Amino acid sequence: MMNFDYSRATSLEEAATLARHPGAMLLAGGTTLLDLAKCEVARPERVIDLTRLPGLNTITVGESGATIGALATMSRVADDHGIQRRYPAIAESLLLAASAQLRNMATIGGNLLQRTRCPYFRDPAGYPACNKRDPGTGCSAIGGITRDHAVLGTSDHCIAVYPGDLAVALSALGATIQTNLRAIEIEAFFLMPGATPERETVLERGEIITAIAVPATPLAANSTYLKVRDRQSYEFAAASAAVGLELDSDGVTIRDIRVALGGIATKPWRAIAVEDALRGRRLDEGTVREASRTAVDGAKSHGGNAYKIELAPCVVARAILKAGGIQ
Amino acid sequence: MASVRPVKLDINGKEKTLSLEPRVTLLDALREHLHMTGTKKGCDQGQCGACTVHVDGQRVLACLTLAVQSEGSAITTIEGLAGPDGTPHPVQQAFIEEDAFQCGYCTPGQIMSAVACIREGRAGSDDEIREFMAGNLCRCGAYPNIVSAVRKAAEATA
Ligand SMILES: Cc1cc2nc3c(=O)[nH]c(=O)nc-3n(C[C@H](O)[C@H](O)[C@H](O)COP(=O)(O)OP(=O)(O)OC[C@H]3O[C@@H](n4cnc5c(N)ncnc54)[C@H](O)[C@@H]3O)c2cc1C
Ligand code: SF4
Ligand code: FES
Ligand code: FES
């Protein structure tokens, strides 16, 4: 790890000013930043520690919605009874992520900004070509081992998966990211790689996430997160789905539904086609399985990741049926 | 550029002042600067749990924590777990009784993690123990005995 200067920000304004300097990086739980600094993927010249900033770790769950401070840890949010009751998909996505130790360290703001686990990205010495890490150098994954790479939202420049779980739940629940400058809807927050895979979100230099706001809706209160992976615990998703489901008073007609996928795309992936195919329809297994196939519309295999195109619709269907109390 | 600075750490109830570069992790501060080698370095990348310590009572990974970040927090390591007279902590005792290790390399991390796991109320069944101890890998595969030891210690403290 290269050496760096360290300063502990005492106010949001100070942190933002310091963070505008080229070479400066913000530090929250450090579980992404220090990991990548050790691989020399991140090379901060100055690290600005946000963790002592006052007032940024509160969790408020009210009638109209929840606000989660950016510095709240994953474990605190997962353990919050209000979140568990009104936003189960959020609590579940956090509990199924990483390990107990990491969840005690990692923050909600940092979680959204975690970087891809593409092994080529993480290994600058072994694989000099990586457009995301070093723009213009090429992509070592295309034509390489692609088992964990994306099938949706890819470009000729990068096929790396967005690895996080929480952001998938937040996409399904229509969350908004609040920064020191503005509020950004989660749909607009993450960018697809296109020709600039190094740019992953719309955040500007010096912009700091302060909180995440989630609207209280009936479908949020009846939401779930399902994660399928190579081992039962402590692993990133091979494919995952977050579903919020609201039924009519008859208990079988789908009034509203929102679906997002993880582990298969370059950003948290809203499956609007699945939602449209199911809104107003009867909740039964055949209908759900048929509609879930549209989750992978436009998917492209790179060989090793072809299985994700088969797997994802099954995960979506299971998650919808689970939210509907059928499975 | 970055220079050495004094860093004051509260480790197992004792205050230590070290001169450290900002990049020094809590793990390296413990092992290389304080020669407290009970906390192990496995992967140094947040993946194995060998470096688990408690910061303000919470289990965390010392390899992904900067020493400077821990200023002002109470740090507990495996060396601080036994009683003042050297009596092993109940979880340490359970690991011995259940033969919950082979080479012993992962053991300090397993024990620190288990103490927190029990305190968090996450050791209610074997499945729960497996899930909430998943961040601690054991290359010797002593898992069945580790689960037994955690269950035994949890039952004793219940
Ligand atoms: C072994 C391992 C397994 C993991 N498994 C999973 C998993 O299964 N699922 C999953 O979702 N995640 C997983 N993770 C990722 C983990 O959840 C993230 O590393 C963590 O959430 C990042 O949060 P942090 O606070 O530690 O971020 P940091 O490392 O402190 O920061 C990450 C990035 O965000 C920036 N940043 C932090 N806070 C802010 C802010 N408020 N405003 C603006 N920028 C900010 C930093 O500058 C940095 O670039 C795993 C990580 C490891 C090491
Ligand atoms: S997939 Fe993206 S992150 Fe991975 S090597 Fe290619 S450009 Fe880099
Ligand atoms: S040494 Fe810290 S997790 Fe492996
Ligand atoms: S006892 Fe050898 S690694 Fe666990």
Walk me through this protein's architecture.
The complex is a heterodimer of chains A (327) and B (158). Chain A has 327 residues and is α+β, with helices and mostly antiparallel strands. Among the domains of chain A are: 5-49, 2-Layer Sandwich (Uridine Diphospho-n-acetylenolpyruvylglucosamine Reductase, domain 2); 219-323, Enolase-like, domain 1, CATH 3.30.390. Helix content of chain A is 28%, strand content 18%. Chain A has 13 helices and twelve strands. A five-stranded antiparallel sheet of chain A has the order 4-5-8-6-7. The N and C termini of chain A lie far apart (48 Å). The model of chain A has no long low-confidence stretch (mean pLDDT 97). Chain B is of the alpha+beta class. Chain B folds into two domains: 5-80, Ubiquitin-like (UB roll) (Roll); 90-157, Orthogonal Bundle (DNA polymerase, domain 1), CATH 1.10.150.120. Helices cover 32% and strands 16% of the residues of chain B. Chain B is built from five helices and five strands. In chain B, strands 2-1-5-3-4 form a five-stranded mixed sheet, sandwiched between helices. The longest helix of chain B is centred in the last third of the chain and has 15 residues, at 143-157. Chain B starts with a strand and ends with a helix. The mean pLDDT of chain B is 97. The chains are: A alpha+beta (327), B alpha+beta (158). The interface between A and B is medium-sized, with 29 and 32 residues. The structure holds flavin-adenine dinucleotide (FAD), iron/sulfur cluster (SF4) and FE2/S2 (inorganic) cluster (FES) (2 copies). Residues 25-33, 35, 50, 70, 97-98, 102, 105-107, 109-111, 113-114, 164-166, 208-209, 236 of chain A line the site of flavin-adenine dinucleotide (FAD).
What's the layout of helices and strands?
The complex is a heterodimer of chains A (327) and B (158).
Chain A: E1 5-8, H1 12-19, E2 24-27, H2 33-38, E3 46-49, E4 59-61, E5 65-69, H3 74-79, H4 81-86, H5 88-95, H6 100-105, H7 108-112, H8 166-172, E6 176-179, E7 183-185, H9 186-189, E8 209-215, H10 218-221, E9 223-228, E10 239-247, E11 254-262, E12 269-270, H11 272-278, H12 285-292, H13 307-323
Parallel strand pairs in A: 1-3, 2-3
Antiparallel strand pairs in A: 4-5, 5-8, 6-7, 6-8, 9-10, 10-11, 11-12
Helix pairs in contact in A: 5-8, 11-12, 12-13
Chain B: E1 5-11, E2 14-20, H1 26-33, E3 52-55, E4 58-61, E5 74-76, H2 90-97, H3 107-119, H4 126-132, H5 143-157
Parallel strand pairs in B: 1-5
Antiparallel strand pairs in B: 1-2, 3-4, 3-5
Helix pairs in contact in B: 2-5, 3-5
The site of one FE2/S2 (inorganic) cluster has 11 residues of chain B, from loops.
